[in-house]
Task: inverse folding
């Protein structure tokens, strides 16, 4: 083997050694660097995720606080509104009660005034007290309104009509003569029994149609058995 071939083989072996060393270097060292770069990237991503998580958590906490604050504010507003509405209702009830009291007082006053007016009118209206007394006692008694020119016979007819009693009489005008009242007739209890009248406790000498009454007179028609 000559020197040229020998040197050529050595050179080729050195190349293979160099290439193999370079491959081993790239395999070991460059892969380690790439791993470090990947780990750095992964750490960066993890840090970003952690940061994002913290930010989201912070935002959620802040939003929850904000919601709680809003809810508390809304509750306070509702309470205030309820208090205001309750106060308004109470005030309206008081106003209604006052109105009802004032309205209830007014009719009472009007009623009392009407009563006074009626009392005054009753005091102003003239009347006559009329009584019908039979065998067994008083058959009818009442005050009747007095009218100018009213006779004792007129008073008897008015009172008897109010009590739905019939009056039997004879004669006309001032010469009228009463025979019976409510079925109780003259001579039912003897030959001297019959109807007579008194005014203010006395027996007038005039017939019942001729005797003119005055206001506040007391007229009593009496059935007598002895004339």
Result:
């Amino acid at each position: 083997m000559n020197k040229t071939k020998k040197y050529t083989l050595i050179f080729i072996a050195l190349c293979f050694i160099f290439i193999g060393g370079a491959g081993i270097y790239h395999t070991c060292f460059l892969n380690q660097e790439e791993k470090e770069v990947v780990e750095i990237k992964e750490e960066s991503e993890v840090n970003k995720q952690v940061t994002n998580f913290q930010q989201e958590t912070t935002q959620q906490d802040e939003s929850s606080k904000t919601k709680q604050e809003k809810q508390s504010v809304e509750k306070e507003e509702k309470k205030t509104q309820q208090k205001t509405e309750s106060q308004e209702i109470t005030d309206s009830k008081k106003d209604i009660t006052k109105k009802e009291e004032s309205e209830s007082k007014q009719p009472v006053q009007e009623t009392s005034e009407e009563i006074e007016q009626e009392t005054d009118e009753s005091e102003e209206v003239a009347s006559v007290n009329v009584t019908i007394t039979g065998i067994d006692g008083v058959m009818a008694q009442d005050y009747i309104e007095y009218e100018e020119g009213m006779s004792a016979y007129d008073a008897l007819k008015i009172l008897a009509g109010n009590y739905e009693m019939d009056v039997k009489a004879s004669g006309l005008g001032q010469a009228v003569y009463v025979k019976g009242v409510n079925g109780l007739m003259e001579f039912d209890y003897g030959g001297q029994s019959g109807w007579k009248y008194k005014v203010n406790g006395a027996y007038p000498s005039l017939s019942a149609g001729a005797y003119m009454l005055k206001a506040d007179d007391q007229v009593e028609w009496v059935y007598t058995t002895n004339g």
Notes: The chain has a mean pLDDT of 79. The chain has two helices and seven strands.
